[in-house]
Amino acid sequence: MPCGALAPHREIPSGVRRIHRTWRTLTLCLLAVSWACRSEPPPGYIRLDGLAPMLADAPGSHALLVVFWASWCPPCREETPQLLSLAESPPEGLRVVVFSHDADLKAVESFFEGPPPSELRLRLDVGEKVAREYGVEQLPTSILVVEGQLVARFPGPRDWDSRAMRRLLERLTRERAIRATGSAD
């Protein structure tokens, strides 16, 4: 056949077309099911171990998510809606405490267009004293403390209200409690 010439058209038998169509449909269905069943990978974090620095006026709780944040920090501002959602409806036994690196409360109130939401238990970290005690070098950074023990560090912004993050916080909180009591009950 000369270069550029078209091959003669051959009719594909209807049985072959039907099998091809069935396999194509089955393949698409399997791809859709496998995509829908995929689970999100757990969010990244750094394991910690040891006693947590004491927090003055810490809320009575089994677990604390200590967040270091500032209203002038773009990644902090980005994660604020999810953080607020987590603080409003946290996993059982978890409370959120936010330490702001802002110079004064007026900047924080300007960001929130009023007083900061009470669920955040926001405090100014004057002189960044608490951040130094927790070894914080970047904003935002969050640290999970369970029963007075350091458990995990979450550097950078997070989607705190995602299902994967909530599951991770529940697992880390429960895991630490089991180690502290020495039982699986």
TrEMBL record:
InterPro entries membership: Redoxin, Thioredoxin-like_sf, Thioredoxin_CS, Thioredoxin_domain, Thioredoxin_ResA/DsbE_sf
GO molecular function: oxidoreductase activity
Record keywords, A-Z: Cytochrome c-type biogenesis, Redox-active center
Pfam family, one: Redoxin
Recorded superkingdom: Bacteria
Any one Gene Ontology BP term: cytochrome complex assembly
Gene Ontology CC annotation, any one: cell envelope
Domain (Thioredoxin) ranges: 34-174
First and last residue of the signal peptide: none
Localisation per UniProt entry: Cell envelope
Main localization (coarse): other
PANTHER family: CHROMOSOME UNDETERMINED SCAFFOLD_47, WHOLE GENOME SHOTGUN SEQUENCE, THIOL:DISULFIDE INTERCHANGE PROTEIN DSBE
Name of this protein: TlpA family protein disulfide reductase
Species this chain originates from: Myxococcus llanfairpwllgwyngyllgogerychwyrndrobwllllantysiliogogogochensis
